[in-house]
Amino acid sequence: MKKLLIASVLTVGLTLSAHAKDIVDTAVAAGSFKTLATALGAAGLVDTLKGKGPFTVFAPTDEAFAKIPKADLDALLKDKAKLTAVLTYHVVPGKVMAADVRAGKVKTVQGSELTVATAGAVTVDNAKVIKTDIVADNGVIHVIDSVIMPK
């Protein structure tokens, strides 16, 4: 009985310490979203994406941000209003898993619609989805190969 009680206490302790991470922590832990994390900080959106959600984030990798000319990226990072618009264009309300994705228009947190295509590879506007269903405790991340810009 004593061994069973100790095992139960250890199991509960391990379960409590294995807390899921929010979208921001999950992206940072992945290691390939340093520019995105910097941009979220510059735009003041870290607390928002650490919030309750749920959110679906189409997250550009560091390589995706590298496609933007350095001078343009530097200017974007200094323009909080434009940066906020670009970043919130990558976020859709709700938790949309890859199996639930349908072609069509999807309203973003920014307010505009982005176009999802499913013929061949899944794309969001002109960005290809390269990894799906990275689950966080407040939503899901789908990795894209380009930064998408609101129209």
Question: What's the topology here?
Answer:
Layout: H1 2-17, H2 23-30, H3 34-43, H4 46-49, E1 55-60, H5 62-66, H6 70-78, H7 80-88, E2 91-93, E3 104-107, E4 113-117, E5 123-124, E6 127-136, E7 139-144
Helix pairs in contact: 3-7
Structure report:
The protein is an alpha+beta fold and 151 residues long. 40% of the residues lie in helices and 24% in strands. It has helices at 2-17, 23-30, 34-43, 46-49, 62-66, 70-78, 80-88; strands at 55-60, 91-93, 104-107, 113-117, 123-124, 127-136, 139-144. The chain has a seven-stranded mixed beta sheet with strand order 2-1-7-6-5-4-3. A hairpin with a 5-residue loop joins strand 4 and strand 5. Helix 3 (34-43) crosses helix 7 (80-88). The chain is globular. The termini are far apart. Residues 1-18 have low confidence and may be disordered.
Short description:
This protein has 151 residues and is of the alpha+beta class. It is built from 7 helices and 7 strands; from the N terminus they run H-H-H-H-E-H-H-H-E-E-E-E-E-E.
